[in-house]
Write a structure and sequence with these properties.
Two copies of one chain form a homodimer.
Chain A lengths: L2 H25 L4 H12 L14 H6 L4 H27 L3 H6 L1 H26 L4 H12 L3 H10 L6 H30 L4 H29 L11 H19 L4 H13 L2 H4 L1 H22 L9 H25 L5 H10 L4 H13 L5 H29 L7 H7 L6
């Protein structure tokens, strides 16, 4: 059996698991995305072993130190998962117009900054002053608690058809800013861990590049698309507008990844840029089947990385649960406070929506591990925190939004700041 | 830069090359698929080297004997290409109802059998009796000339919007039968090359399995779908009919590959089974964006495997061109004769449509090489034949179909055999 034939069977098993889980979770009124994550855990190398091999974890694949025989499969899985989440954020971007993000820009910035400061402070204080771990170790845990994995939340918002709500827009805007902040902090931390010193010039360059990329794409890109979109009809290739939008998705995703941002930020911006032209070319309608085909791979493969035995380790589970509680509280209070005046439900939605650490927490932890900045048990603590925040957020979001439609009217300040959004 | 970030950039480069090439080729009135193949050749490891590495050929990837550092990328490319051609044949299947294939079943069988016998005979006689190569070597060249890569032709038929023409249906039906025949011959050849003997029991088992699979899926699958398709509306998951159709595509493709058939045969059957329900659920409409996103990867990556320097080898180019000419003549005359009575244009369309050897020719050649049945220079001869037949067929098909709309009316026999097809 060739490798490719084996991988094709893996794709079938993953997609089947995703669809069965989605069906079951819809029937028990739980978010299908949790079903997909759990399906991944079940069929993954740490449980039934239907896909992957135990050594082939996300962390190893990111760093390339996988035994060569399994490397091919691990890398292929990662690309598939990455493509899935890139398509997800592209689709969410298509449903998000730049003017709606700019309208909530101030609020989103506050949410991002508060959602970075408070979790970092809580994690740092717990690990350092209270538990007495070394400073660099405490800082890494703090940074891992800062990360936001917007993929999970974006999927829930899309499944609930509330992408155009004020809260969703604030979350998406904040996620972009959050990713830039996290990148700056991570670059600083890596410098500290490597050489004990930080080059302000280097950090400034990295930050400037990321901000410039985001602002340039969002503003200039949108202008270019709204001005020249109709010109795409003059191209002879089959369905040129959709092809060009997909090109922008792949191009901006890899450009974002190359300058150190998350690829999904580039994909989201690409979607947003084409949101101006989406109705004219039915872009959303066309992106939806690709979403339905590829996105489940991200969630099932992410779930398959979870090693449930970690939760049986009595030595770390206590501190892991404490860190998880602080990670949730940090975002809930930090982002919630930033939402003051928009009603308690909106405060809760944004706080919970910013909570999942997902694969971003894992990346920070694995960086810390590979730099020798954190020991193995602290790595496990961060992994457990990432998993739990990821699994807890979707059901709570679902309840919060379910209550919203029948609940309080939006207070006056939101009206003025968030404007006349269609579904408020 | 992580492997995944690098691969994401590769996807962008491949998709960009495909779209630029498609645009240029549409403008010069040539088939876009040739543009995509040439774009792959241009950006591939043997020319500009924008993607892949020189050692990572299709043949090596199929056999897994690639240096480990490049294995990951090679396997990922192969999976992407395979997914692209699987989606292509699934889409073509969706446009093909089983009753239309059965209506031309007798003719398709004759086309397949004649298209196997004549090319094999020509190749065998040239290599053995005329050029004096050993018997097993001549037989392998003969078998490589038998193969049909229906992906190329299917793409051209789809681009020309003629999938539902009588000729297209005969080609598709013949391609399925052709693949079963090729598998049986290949199993026989492998037995001969390995042990000098053929186990009739084993060959019978392999053949029976393939025929049973095809007939069972085509007949029972179609019955199940037409009876229970409406039940899919009772599922709670998002867009269940499309999800189940994609599941069938992945499942039947990997099942086909596991029993030794081409994965694309399974994908084609899956599409055909759901063709019954396609209008009800808009399956074609939904599959199209996935087609537009993934199919170009197959053609660009296939093109990137071509080492143009092979054509500069004076020692083999003469015999390679002779073999190519016989490969074209074999299908043109063999399949053409099987079409007698349906008009000269239809004879030519089916003969040319069955001509591309594509990746199937390469697989046969690489099997012969790995079994020690053919030497390196004969391997190159087969590779050149596969490339040339693949590149020559699309432009000729385009011309033949362009003439058809303004040309002769269909003769009486075709009416009665092919029935009242919509676009005859």
């Amino acid at each position: 059996m060739s490798e490719v034939t084996g991988l094709l069977l893996d794709l079938f098993v993953i997609f089947l698991a995703a669809k069965v889980a989605a069906e079951v979770f819809e029937r028990i009124h739980q978010p299908p995305v949790i079903g997909e994550l759990l399906a991944g855990l079940l069929i993954g190398p740490h449980a039934l072993g239907l896909i992957g091999t135990p050594d082939q974890t996300l962390v190893q694949a990111f760093h390339g130190d996988v035994p060569s025989a399994q490397e091919a499969v691990a890398i292929t899985y990662r690309l598939l998962a990455e493509l899935g989440v890139v398509v997800l954020l592209f689709f969410v971007g298509l449903e998000t117009q730049i003017k709606d993000i700019l309208r909530v820009g101030g609020r989103a910035t506050t949410v991002a900054v508060m959602g970075v400061l408070l979790p970092f402070a809580l994690g740092f204080v717990l690990m350092g002053p209270i538990l007495g771990h070394p400073q660099i170790e405490s800082m890494f845990v703090g940074v891992a608690m800062v990360a936001t994995s917007v993929g999970i939340t974006a999927r829930v918002l899309r499944d609930l058809h509330v992408i155009s709500s004020m809260e969703s827009r604030i979350i998406l805007g904040a996620a972009v800013i959050d990713d830039i902040l996290a990148m700056i902090i991570l670059a600083t931390m890596s410098g500290l861990a490597r050489s004990g010193a930080v080059s302000l010039l280097e950090i400034g360059f990295i930050a400037g590049q990321a901000i410039l990329f985001t602002v340039f794409v969002a503003l200039v890109g949108t202008g270019v698309v709204s001005r020249f979109a109709l010109g795409l009809n003059h191209l002879r290739m089959d369905n040129a507008p959709f092809a060009v939008a997909l090109l922008a998705m792949l191009g901006l995703a890899s450009l974002a990844a190359h300058i150190g941002l998350a690829a999904i930020i580039g994909a989201f911006l690409a979607g947003m840029v084409f949101a101006e032209a989406r109705e004219h070319f039915e872009l959303e309608h066309q992106a939806l089947p690709i979403f339905q085909f590829l996105v489940p791979f991200f969630f099932v493969l992410t779930g398959s990385e979870v090693d449930w035995r970690m939760f049986l380790d009595g030595g770390i589970i206590g501190i892991a649960l404490t860190v998880t509680a602080l990670a949730l509280l940090g975002k809930l209070i930090g982002c919630g406070l930033a939402m003051v005046g928009l009603g308690r439900r909106s405060m809760a939605i944004v706080g919970v929506g910013m909570s999942p650490r997902g694969e971003v927490g894992l990346i920070v932890a694995s960086l810390g591990l590979s730099l020798g900045a954190i020991p193995a048990e602290i790595f496990s603590v961060v992994v457990i925190m990432s998993i739990l925040t990821t699994f807890i957020a979707p059901p709570i979001l679902r309840v919060l939004f379910a209550g919203k439609s029948t609940a309080e009217t939006v207070p006056a300040e939101a009206e003025s700041e968030a404007g006349r959004l269609p579904d408020l």
